[in-house]
Amino acid sequence: MTVQELHTTGLLFACVCDQETEEVMRLVPVQNYDLKYEGIVGGIKEAIKYLKSNRSPRILIIDLSQSDLPINDIASLSEVCEPGVEVIAIGTRNDVGIFRELVKLGIRDYLVKPLTTTHIIRSIENIVLRNKVTQTTSSFSKFGKIVSFIGTHGGAGVTTLAVNCAWLMSEKHSRRISLIDPDLQLGTISQFLDLEISASLQEILEAPERIDDSLIDRFMTQYSPHLMVMCGQTSLEESQTINPEVFDPIIQSMLGNFHYTIFDLPRSFSNGINLHILGNSNIIVLVTDLSIVGLKDSHRYLEIFKRHRTTDQQVFIIVNKQGEYHAGEIEMEDFEKALNHKIDLVIPFNSHQPLQALTKGIPFVSQETSSALTDSLIQLTDKIMGRETTPKTSIKKLFNLFSFKK
Q: Which positions, given as ranges, span the membrane (predicted)?
């Protein structure tokens, strides 16, 4: 199954609290706007549950009438909506203050019940016509993020971390994830997931004039409902002359269709691809160990990141396989002092778990749910997703602003 077969770009989905409103929704001629209608009776919590296991629609109508904490519920909804979703909220309170607060949160429109088909048509037209003119969508579900994993030296465990973080984000948090291996000669993501790649990323990169969402879709392999993979393999003897800018349309497509796109980058900077992808990354995960080589190369990488850093870009330094060598590892405090940068997370060495999972072609976190290694990967995933620093206090301040209950 492909991305296109799963994507519901032409769907208007409504989750409303009463049968009367649902019947009005069914009378709206959505086909006039290249849409089809699906709806259920239920509140915003039912909408969140639906979106955790289904692709997001183009337009989502949610009923806040029975919501005790609407701002909190909307924040939860934004976490499961895919980038580019347009949201219309409906409720029972006719208050301009409510409308303004919802707009700040990215809601495109707020309609007061009881609804008429005229109200709904006008709101749909505003969305469809505006998008055609401006080619933009609302800020409710923001564009996705690019996360690049890269290691200081061979054997650092970059692919292991990238694959398992991708699985956790897709399976445990219901995020849409794309996992990309741009190393066409020595990339190993397909082995880690036991995937037989039917088409090569090389073919996309060699025809930049043909790159669009449809072509990219054809070259992605579905690993699970929320996880898609793009990779390939070429001969070790085949020379590569790829323009790094060819990745731009790929990145743009990913930003508009996935919550997170994870790149498993090789260590070579000779062809400019790494620098280009790193420059477009929201988050960089640098994987090292506590060796003298790891320290030296971590310093070199950080210098590169500084020179090519973009606004608001985050860099996480991860010490992997701590304890693999009983002697010779630099003390953590000395490592941080020499590097002049704090270590964000330490992942303990496990002599058998990752290798056994690789042999089976499965992410080890999918089976080993209670181990120090799995706990560390969960922490890393939380860091990438910003779950540790979610500003819940600002949401709480809005809880008492309004209530949609009668």
A: none
